[in-house]
Amino acid sequence: MDKNLIRFAALDFVDDDKVRGYHYWYICEFDAEKGDKAVAPLGRHNNLQTGIVKEIRYADEFEAPFPVHMIKYIKKIIKSTEANNVQNS
Prior knowledge:
The chain has 89 residues and is mainly beta. It contains 1 helix and 6 strands; from the N terminus they run E-E-E-E-E-E-H. A hairpin with a 4-residue loop joins strand 3 (37-42) and strand 4 (47-59). The chain is globular.
């Protein structure tokens, strides 16, 4: 893969009734895949919320799914296998 490409992740914040069903694009500096949970800032107050990764896309800044100068960063990834282990404990 081209090292100049940026990893973008589309998150759905399923626990928030106001934004459930919408996909919000973030830059993801972690090894994430579809189905993982992600902690990211949401809204103008940048409150951290947990969402589900719905799509991963690699692109340069000119083909980004959202203007790069406006996009936020994912703060943490919770791998889907980790989430399953916590639920099964």
